[in-house]
Write a structure and sequence with these properties.
heterodimer; A: 112 residues; mainly beta; four-stranded antiparallel sheet; B: 115 residues; 12 strands
């Protein structure tokens, strides 16, 4: 299994600012994934982050808005840049281990 | 476009009642199928998964799901629910030709079990 922690667990931010979310895994994993769950909606994949390469973004998500770092096999960050109220969501980190997908506890972001 | 549909957004039932949550997906190729559960205040947890083989899969906590390929469905069932089954349930699809971990989720079904 894989145990995932995220920081912060929640935050309230002002419009126009940026927030960096950290994801730490207790084991080395090749791929890490960032998802978003907007209020009342399903989880949507933002991007896939592989160590040592640029993240791959899904349609509708761009690097300038959601820059991702993946400095090693146990850690990743997602930055939500130039935030607007529409960015208010839960952001989840996810990893695959032994053919099972594990999810972090999420970061609840509210943008005022 | 690929999509995953969960038929009910909210379900309220009494303890010992039977539960069935519907999930349909639109994708023409071979898929991996999953049900996840999120208990209040907790992480998403895997209930069960289907990759291939027997279309009736059993998961944790007495849950099972049946894959019906002709109907593009993967419905979740539990014969007798408990109060502790109160949670949100998500159906998810991972197309086998796509990268592992790139899941498409349904909107979720909030299940409330009353004592």
């Amino acid at each position: 299994s894989a145990v995932i922690s995220q920081k912060p667990s929640r935050d309230i931010c002002q419009r126009g600012t940026s927030l960096t979310i950290q994801c730490q895994v207790d084991s080395q994993v090749t791929m890490m994934f960032w998802y978003r769950q907007q209020p009342g909606q399903s989880l949507t994949l933002i991007a896939t982050a592989n160590q040592g390469s640029e993240a791959t973004y899904e349609s509708g998500f761009v690097i300038d808005k959601f820059p991702i770092s993946r400095p090693n096999l146990t850690f990743s960050t997602l930055t939500v840049s130039n935030m607007s109220p529409e960015d208010s969501s839960i952001y989840l980190c996810s990893v695959e281990a032994q053919l099972e997908q594990f999810f972090g506890p999420g970061t609840r972001l509210t943008v005022l | 476009a690929q999509s995953v549909s969960q038929h009910n957004h909210h379900v309220i039932l009494s303890e010992a009642a039977s539960l069935e949550l519907g999930c349909n997906y639109s994708y023409g190729g071979t898929v991996n199928l999953f049900w996840y559960v999120q208990y209040p205040g907790q992480h998403l947890q895997l209930l069960l998964k289907y990759f291939s083989g027997d279309p009736l899969v059993k998961g944790i906590k007495g849950f099972e799901a049946e894959f019906i390929k002709s109907k593009f469905s993967f419905n979740l069932r539990k014969p007798s629910v408990q109060w502790s089954d109160t949670a949100e349930y998500f159906c998810a699809v991972n197309p086998q030709l796509d990268s592992w971990g790139k899941f498409q989720f349904g909107a979720g079904t909030q299940v409330v079990v009353t004592p």
